[in-house]
Amino acid sequence: MEHILFLTGRLAQPQLERVLAGMAGTPFTWSVHDLGLQVAALMTTDMVRRRLPELPPCDRLLLPGRCRGDVDALAGHYGIPVQRGPDELKDLPQFFQRAAQPVDLSRYRTLVFAEIVDAPRLTVAAIVARAQALAGEGADVIDLGCLPATPFAHLEDTVRALKAQGLHVSVDSLDTAELLRGGQAGADYLLSLTDETLWVADQVAATPVLIPRTPEDTASLDAAIAGMVARGRPFLADPILDPIPFGFTASIVRYHALRQRHPRVALMMGVGNLTELVEADTSGINALLFGMAAELDVAAVLTTSVSPHARRAVAEADAARRVMHAAVQMQTLPKSLSPLLATVHERRPYTDTPADIAATAAQIKDPNFRVQVAQDGIHVYNRDGHHVASDPFALWPQLKLDAYGAHAFYMGVELGRAEIAHQLGKRYNQDQPLNWGVAWQPGAEDMYHFRATGSTLKKKPADE
Question: By the 8 A CB rule, do 198 and 211 touch?
Answer without folding.
Answer: no
